[in-house]
Amino acid sequence: MNEYISETIKAVKVKNAGEPEFLQAVTEVLTSLDPVIKANPQYKKNAILERMVEPERVIMFRVPWVDDKGFVRVNRGYRIQMNSAIGPYKGGLRFDPTVNLSVLKFLAFEQVFKNSLTTLPMGGGKGGSDFNPKQSPHTPGKRCSDAEVMRFCQSFMNELYRHIGPDTDVPAGDMNVGGREIGYLFGQYKKLANEWTGVLTGKALSFGGSLIRPEATGYGDVYFAENMLAMRGETFEGKKCVISGSGNVASFAAEKLLQLGAKVLTLSDRSGAIYCESGITEKMLKDIMFLKNVKRGELAEFAKKTKAVKFFANANSWQLADKIDAAFPCARQNELDANDAKYLLDHGCTLVGEGANMPSTPEAIAAFIKAKIMYSPGKASNAGGVATSGLEMSQNSERLSWTREEVDAKLKGIMKSIHDNAWEAAAKYGHKGNYAMGANIAGFVKVADAMVAQGVC
Known about the structure:
With 457 residues, the chain is α/β, with parallel strands linked by helices.
């Protein structure tokens, strides 16, 4: 490994010793940059790596709110403004008890390269809270009420609004932050800032949202995979696919796969995984979307009412099917490990398209690359969501609303550009077909060149 890269990784480990997710993300990206650093000595001269692994700003604050019983609750809020070299900070807000500084720094770091790959002028950021909307603070097994979620979101925005803006930082949704939460957050921002701007994306259509935005990450993941298959003269027709997760990303990835003639065998959530040997139908998928998005229920409940589906408690999606052509990890980080990778490869899998952020462990990624299957890292294949958020920002700025067909066409074009840029970057630096290397290099070079051009800042 290049000495400059090695020394930077060592320094990051010392400074961020208690942040395993962030260290994993930094190591994964930096270790793939060896040919780029050797070919561009100006990056070392300008300390680009040292600057890129250090957030421009870390904001942490308390979030007090009142539950339905009248008790005061306190959570912790964050916003990581990682890098603004190519545009305003852009990245989601995540509400989940697993949220901490390490998780959000890893997500923000990944977001920098993901946004760079979209070709849109967006920097990288991420934020959120350890608030859990899926667990009522006073009734075990129950979710927070809409009123509790609203009060939390309003309190969260009471601090966050000082640090964001349409030309500064434009948050979006992420895990457990959907249309309901974005609506409450936007309403409070509008009241505090006394202005209507496109400061949040993922809004409802009635107040500035974009068509295709809910579908974008899942659709984009499949569009990227479709481009990988095309390089080998293949399509999704008849291919057996396994998917993890059952939220927007997983559900819409499944929807697009069904439209392309594939067979979707699995979905999962915190309760476990469902397996349908004959393939999940469009009717089943609609029922699952209603269960997850409206009733906010779990797949265990769906499985009880659906005879064609088998439910496996506390299981993931990877080791249930006998024959697998493609896998789409769409749930959370590090959900697919080396054992899962071995099972997938042993059962015929030739394509892995990451829909979540860093869902595969380093060992799993190494196995996929060694096997020379089609493997796309999340920073490339799940960039459709933030790309469409960028399109929402454009529509808000122009006070326009594009048609579904217009947005979908732009999304397809962006995903093809990301695929082609990753392919070409890998080939240019001697790693043809390695999308992980290509995505890291293509995303890095654009940001690094902008940082060099802007001086030491």
